[in-house]
Amino acid sequence: MNLKIAVLAGDGIGPEVVLQAKKALHAIGVMFDHDFIFEEALVGAVAIDKTGTALPEQTLNLCLNTDAVLFGTVDNKDNQDTNLNSEKSPSQGVLKLRKELGLFANQRPIKTYSSLVPFSPLKREIIDGTDFIIFRELTGGIYFGDKTLNKDKTKATDLCQYTQEEISRITHLAFQAAQKRKKKVTLVDKANVLETSRLWRNVVQQISLDYPEVALQFLYVDNAAMQLVVNPKQFDILLTENLFGDILSDEASAITGTIGLLASASFGTTKALFEPLHGSFALAKDKNIANPIASIVSAAMLLEHFGLQTEANLVYQAVQKAIDYNVVTMDLNPGTNFGTHEVGTFISNFILNKDDLLYFNTNNVHIGQSTIV
Ligand code: IPM
Ligand code: MG
């Protein structure tokens, strides 16, 4: 398969983790005879510095003309004092990119790795075996509704608005995903208070009739926030609107114990974007300590999206091997000898089928010794 991939590495640790994801994809290309062509473009604070805007026209055009976007991270430290409508806010660049590419469905898989369960603040018996996906609506709701601020800056409003069509398109994707999994969709809303939530319920209920084998459950968002830490294993597909999805996905990331492993994919009708869930972690930039696994997992999600399931599974297997052998960065093993680059190399070498031949003595890896030979 030939794929042209736009690479928007962004700020902070973005470039170094995305580089590891590219290494994994390159290895997959070699092993399975695929041609992945990467084209880099600017986004975020680095784009503001160089071009004056967080999402330059050239970057947007590249994304519109490639098969997929591999995204890194952008800084958000200037948000506090930036006019939010300004072109100079990295977050606004992200929102504009989502809107322009029509990325209405965001998927955030939350899955525990058994050996990493101790990193979670939650008890093993509560979280071990957790495996669900958050389907977050990404281009509507309060994020994109009209905003007002009166002249003396004492009153502000944000409009939350949804149309039947906006709800319907992501709902179908959620039910289709549930069909292939544990066959359960939980709609999270605030239908006891919000009119938009009542519209969500009606539309989702109606669509559920097309998927009789999938169970539909409704949950108020306050209760859902509690259920996530009390009994996360009950979820399969958690479907929700933009703002609730933003909040719940950060909460859910704590279940796995580290945000360094979580990735996300955003889909539209024609475009798709893949990125790690974590932020730009500017303090770690260029120190070779950032965990590259989330970015590598986002590359695996890209492969899955193009139907390359065997290839994606190999990436997941390589990630699992790195964790099993304790070839991990310091967030998962404070005394580690491995950095961003070494973890990425281990994973790409595993894909290339030469993990224990060239770089690593796997007999020693598990005890965290310096094993690069
Ligand atoms: C996310 C982020 C963004 C959001 C910010 C950077 C605008 O928090 O992707 O979850 O709120 O959607
Ligand atoms: Mg968020």
TrEMBL record:
Coiled-coil features, chain-numbered ranges: none
SMART domains cross-referenced by the UniProt entry: Iso_dh
Annotated GO MF terms: 3-isopropylmalate dehydrogenase activity; magnesium ion binding; NAD binding
Gene Ontology CC: cytosol
Highest taxon of source: Bacteria
GO biological process: L-leucine biosynthetic process
Cofactor (UniProt): Mn(2+); Mg(2+)
Cofactor note: Binds 1 Mg(2+) or Mn(2+) ion per subunit.
Record text on subunit structure and interactions: Homodimer.
Protein name: 3-isopropylmalate dehydrogenase
